[in-house]
Amino acid sequence: MSISPPPQGQLVRSLTLFAAFMLTVSSVIGSGIYKKVAPMSVELLSPTLVILCWVLAGLITLCGALSNAEIASMLADSGGEYVYYRKIYNRFFAFLYGWTSFTVIRSASLASIAYVFSQSFHALVPLPELPETIASFSLFGVFTPFHNFGVKGLTIGLIIILTIINYRGLKGGEGLSRYVLILVTAVIALIVILGLTIGGGSWQNIQADATGYTDLPWYDTGFIQAMFAALLAAFWAYEGWATTGYLGGEIHNPNRNLPLALVFGVLFVMGVYVIVNFTYLYVLPIDQIVEVGKTQNTIAAVVVVQHILGSPGVLFISILIILTTFGATNTTALMPPRLYYAMAKEGMFFQSAAFIHPRFNTPSKAFVIQAAWASVLVLSGSFDQLTDMLVFASFIFYGATALGVFILRYRMPDAPRPYKAWGYPVVPALFILFCVALVVITLIGKPREALLGLGLMLTGVPFYWYWTSGKDSK
């Protein structure tokens, strides 16, 4: 006697262009806008170079979005790059991307943004810590799961809460992200206005370099390594824009609206980041921001607003960061399960992830799997370790998407392209070269994070062999 499978729902095209744009922006603006100026200042020791780095990272991200948008306009569907790679390359490469998104990129992104939420909460209400004898415990001399455990515990709790919200429906999660983003954008604008008017800043702060700064030519090895280390931090702040592609099966007219949401979303974020980080460096001398970068659980934006508004400013900015990272964590949790759902439907992920809840019309079990692994990553490392690892892995696949523009132009020259990459072939080619350079320099400059990312990526190989054994592997 056969057992009938449980009833399933279906994904619904309920997102407009504006909703997709808002999700793109809210998936990007998170912790980086408050925190990453400090490690960037540690690397570059120059306000001018830090601002230049934000602009450069934004332009490079825009090149990636322009390339991604052409592919999205042709192949838009639930699963984003997984669907693209399946058609551009082959099943194995598509799987490798999906598995890396699960083990490194998207789960670590979820863990990292939630981590800053908890750090901000900790600034308001100190969280309990475990005794030093337990907190100092390490695995293999690398992982310290019980260190900073109060922050890590709240981080895991937030992941669980937002998983429940998104488990119960797309509209609820999308609406939450939209309202939080509108509030956060308004308050960020207020910070900029106050910082540039009554913040006590000066152009001298923008012009004065930090103690220990050495003027090096752009081709010097030391300058290149410092710039790429700073770019790695900036790219974390820009990370997340491509996840909107996971919702291709739930967007109205995705071949038109998805690329528009990507491009205009990145442009908006770039403008916000440059203005806000200019304000930080205008208000405080870079030496003070460098000191922030050397202190655990201290956030640059909190120090800047405290300088502007005094102690009440700490409460103000901490609440703002809590709201921002809450919204960004929600958006980050919302999108990737659509990717795991697409993989599971093809038999290349845990089969339960292919289940669509009959009432909520969401990949509900994929949400549970994601939350479990993201919680493990929270325990495994610090915020900066997680973000460097996921940016390194992300740019391997960002480059592959840009290369796909060339492959499809050659293989399918007459296929309809609702959107064509601006600046082709120069813009996609430059973006590919940059991706290669970032991957190589990260391997040299941050081998722990790079090798950990590669190691987690390669753990997918035996799973691929198991899930595809006996199948056509084309």
Question: What does this protein structure show overall?
Answer:
With 474 residues, this protein is mostly helical. It has one domain: Amino acid/polyamine transporter I (Up-down Bundle), CATH 1.20.1740.10. The chain contains 21 helices and no strands. It has helices at 17-28, 32-35, 37-44, 47-75, 81-88, 91-124, 132-135, 149-167, 170-197, 203-207, 221-238, 254-283, 286-293, 300-309, 311-334, 336-345, 364-380, 383-411, 426-445, 447-458, 460-468. The two termini are 35 Å apart. The model has no long low-confidence stretch (mean pLDDT 83).
Care to give the gist of this entry?
With 474 residues, the protein is mainly alpha-helical. The protein is built from 21 helices and no strands.
Topology:
Layout: H1 17-28, H2 32-35, H3 37-44, H4 47-75, H5 81-88, H6 91-124, H7 132-135, H8 149-167, H9 170-197, H10 203-207, H11 221-238, H12 254-283, H13 286-293, H14 300-309, H15 311-334, H16 336-345, H17 364-380, H18 383-411, H19 426-445, H20 447-458, H21 460-468
Helix pairs in contact: 1-9, 1-12, 1-15, 3-4, 3-11, 3-13, 4-11, 4-12, 4-18, 4-19, 5-6, 5-18, 6-8, 6-15, 6-16, 6-17, 6-18, 6-20, 8-15, 8-17, 9-12, 9-15, 11-18, 11-19, 14-15, 16-17, 18-19, 18-20, 19-20
The CATH topology: Amino acid/polyamine transporter I
Query: Which stretches of 5+ consecutive residues score pLDDT under 50?
Result: none
Please count the helical segments: 21
Overall geometry:
globular
**Number of self-contained structural domains:** 1
**What fraction, in percent, of the residue positions are helical?**
over 70%
Strand content: under 5%
Annotated CATH architecture: Up-down Bundle
The CATH C-level class name: Mainly Alpha
